[in-house]
Amino acid sequence: MFVGAARTFLAGGFLFRFKLTSDRLHFAFSDLRLNDLVADNLDKFDITESESLLIGRDFGITTDIETGPNGDLFVVSNTNSSVYEISGKQPLVFTANLNAAQETPPNNSTAVGTATLLLSPDEQTARVSLSFNGLSSAETAAHIHGPAPPGTAGAILFPLPNSAFTDFLISPSATDVQNLKNGQLYINVHSSNFLNGEIRGQFQTGASASSFQFNSAGSYVTENAGSAVITVTRLGNASAPATIDYATNDGTASSSTDYLATSGTLHFSAGETFKTFSVPLVDDLYVEGNETVKLSLSNPSGGAFLGSPNIGTLTIVDNDVVTASSPQLILEESGPDPNQATAFDSMLFVRDPFHVQSIATWVDLGPDRNTRVIVFAANLQLNQGETASAVVVHLVDNSSQSFDVTAEDVRLVPNFGFAQITFRLPDNLAGGTCTVTIKAHGQASNIGSIRIVP
């Protein structure tokens, strides 16, 4: 039984697999800690005691999981409107080293390049990556050609994008696939100086072929997740140690304000086929929409190539719900002052003037008898997980004393488009007119006033 996520806080949208007993009436857990049918995690969105169930991550919010006619698992993600196909078979890795000596005819260019082609398990599609440097002149085209053995020119089968690229999808025919397996397809790059091709490489596969790539070209994480975990996979021969460098760069997200720039090297031991690195996130309080971070792999060692995709995008899903405009303190048009704030004593529900200490002597208020005042503001709403302390009431009394008072309660008024804010009057507030400003999420409201009894 497969279970997807309704929220993305755990593993970016988990995919769990529950194995069943032979009579299909009970779960068959490999982790004895789950025999009590409870995953005693350390935190609400923590993987503890569910590690054995996790078979996939970064699927976002899953709306459907089905087994297709070919036996593969199909997962529908509502987060990015994608359908993922999961196969138990790995793609077949083909690699090519490009240089001028393999061109037809050979030339004296010093340019070099590498390419990978990952043939899908059903052999219906393939994903191509190409990188190169040192061309003698501007690139004019790139193609996959065939069928042709080394030293022989072949027809153009698949035009490719200009410049380096990753994760380019092609759909080879059954004949193309057979020619690929027979070493009859090659990739080359054309330039202004060498219109027939400056560098070329024959696609080959074998026991030693291997590649590094991201497990997905696109990953999604909510802004308040703390960090995004990115998975790098190793396909093909994994019998020897190897390394791969990773790095992040700004997309529409900015380092330090939206995420923390990350780079490093992943060290794969012999037999290891995947590793992860984390991208720390900055959870701000501004509505910015979804933002992106660029991910890249480089410098594979151990004879491995860069696979597809070796460039990815991390999308930070905005969790903020407030508007970009500042709070708007609601004023009382009929009040004694043009900027009179709509305000009430939270207990007596009477308007100002207010005493600093409550006059409700018949109520046992305990040691703190200071009056609580309610004011109202539009364009104010707490984000998920926020408390009233995210809102501050700024007061300036008749003696020019300034106070920043943390709100004690903030809630939306039912059926109205504004919020009510409850705060405590400070001990030393002077009598007379006192100005009021609401501050939240880096924004300040207009100025209102209330009256304080001396």
Question: Short description, anyone?
Answer:
With 454 residues, the chain is an all-beta fold.
**Can you give the mean pLDDT?**
89
What is the annotated CATH architecture of the largest domain?
Sandwich
Tell me what portion of residues adopts beta-strand conformation: 35-45%
At the first level of CATH, the class of the largest domain is Mainly Beta
Report on this model:
- The strands form 8 sheets. The chain has a 5-stranded mixed β-sheet, with no helix packed on it. Strands 24, 25, 26, 29 and 30 form a 5-stranded antiparallel β-sheet that branches.
- The model has no long low-confidence stretch (mean pLDDT 89).
- The chain is elongated and about 100 Å long.
- The chain has 4 domains: 85 residues, no CATH class; 111 residues; 104 residues, Immunoglobulin-like (Sandwich); 125 residues, Sandwich (Immunoglobulin-like), CATH 2.60.40.
- With 454 residues, the protein is an all-beta fold.
- It contains 1 helix and 33 strands.
